[in-house]
Design goal:
356 residues; binds zinc ion; 5-stranded mixed β-sheet; 11 helices; single chain; binds 5'-O-[(R)-(carboxyoxy)(hydroxy)phosphoryl]adenosine; alpha/beta
Length: 356
């Protein structure tokens, strides 16, 4: 069985072809990061318009990469939420059109479930073993920060989420405060490696034992207050020290709560996914602490962690195998009705756009 996956929930237009084993035959992603960078965040209308332009080339690219055609496809899986409605509509309509034209089953996929299963994708040449169920998953991106218990590919529950900002959003806001540009996560990560975290004192959020909730807005405010009190930074070392301190607090919170979830649920397997899983400090600290706790850690390859359609296709495979499919009346939703997580809308800037 080969499933075509389509993803357009935020600022990536993506298409992928995946076998029922999770083997990726093609995976094409067109990112809009450069388009949104001057605005310091994703602009919904620009995102939707770019998806309209990119969707067909991305689909064609996926078939060319796999050396396959629509005749080889057995089903279409498309992200139908949560996300930006205008953006989601583009992928959903493309999926419906193909399903109608080829008389193929159509499956709507919750974007978050795609992320949670992203560690089960098998990429060509990668010596990757799928994680045994059940496992604990930390989904940490620009829009989401939450912990889940994944019992099977179609049975999962949220254990806790952020009360305010997503971790990636906090990275981006702190980078902006320090004048480091957008998206800020990778830049803060790079500077943090040269910094001394002990030089800056920052509050450690929600440290109560047993709490599986996160909070990053107080930390972000503490950084803002420090920056305003300090005035312009003259030395890069001072900025690096602040980045190291901020990243240290975020990473500690993410990892300790993930391991707390493993302990509370007696599940010694942890998967960390989402864009922030690229963070070098997070990867290193998670490995160190999971080894010490006897927890098997999986951090999927970066192409699987960030938004992609291979994870959507694979989630579609799992739904199809469980006998679940949708009709051509498939709807879109901006908040997750399944996992309780809400899409953070704060990071999407609402503003007047220049006239085209
Ligand atoms: O999953 P993703 O590509 O998009 C969604 O948010 O859906 O995640 C993007 C987020 C951004 O906030 C970005 O700053 C953050 O992931 N990020 C990082 C790093 N690379 C990307 N955050 C910290 N360290 C990194 N190396
Ligand atoms: Zn995502």
């Amino acid at each position: 069985m080969i499933v075509l996956g389509v993803e357009s929930s935020c600022d990536e237009t993506a298409a992928a072809l995946v076998r029922e084993t999770g083997e990726v035959l093609a995976d094409v992603v067109s990112s809009q990061v450069k388009l949104h960078a001057p605005y310091g965040g994703v602009v919904p209308e620009l995102a939707a318009r770019a998806h309209v332009q990119n969707i067909v080339p991305v689909l064609e690219g996926a078939f060319a990469q796999a050396g396959l055609s629509l005749a080889d496809v057995d089903a279409i899986a498309v992200t139908n939420g949560p996300g930006l409605v205008g953006a989601l509509l583009v992928g959903v309509q493309a999926g419906k059109a193909i399903a109608l034209a080829r008389n193929l089953p159509l499956i709507g996929v919750n974007h978050l479930i795609g992320h949670l299963l992203s560690g089960q994708i098998v990429r060509p040449g990668a010596a990757h073993v799928q994680t045994e169920y059940p496992f604990i998953a930390l989904l940490v991106s620009g829009g989401h920060t939450a912990l889940y218990e994944v019992r099977s590919p179609t049975d999962m529950a949220q254990l806790g989420q952020t009360r305010d900002d997503a971790a990636g959003e906090a990275f981006d806001k702190v980078a902006k405060l320090l004048g480091l540009g957008y998206p800020g996560g990778p830049r803060v990560d790079r500077l943090a490696a040269q910094g001394d975290a002990s030089k800056v004192k920052l509050p450690r959020p929600l440290r109560r034992p047993g709490s599986l909730e996160f909070s990053f807005s107080g930390l972000k405010t503490a950084v803002a207050q420090l920056v305003h009190a300090h005035g312009p930074y003259e030395s890069e070392q001072e900025i690096a020290d602040l980045c190291a301190a901020f990243q240290g607090v975020v990473v500690e919170s993410l990892v300790e709560k993930s391991l707390e979830a493993c302990r509370v649920r007696s599940i010694p397997r942890l998967v960390i996914t989402g864009g922030v899983a690229a963070n070098k400090g997070l990867r290193a600290y998670a490995k160190l602490r999971s080894d010490a706790a006897g927890v098997a850690l999986t951090v999927p390859p970066m192409q699987s962690c960030t938004d992609n359609a291979a994870m959507i296709a694979y989630a579609g495979v799992c739904k199809l195998q469980a006998g679940i499919r949708d009709g051509l009346d498939l709807d879109v939703f901006s908040r997750s009705p399944i996992l309780g997580a809400t899409e953070s809308t704060k990071r999407y800037r609402s503003q007047r756009l220049p006239r085209p």
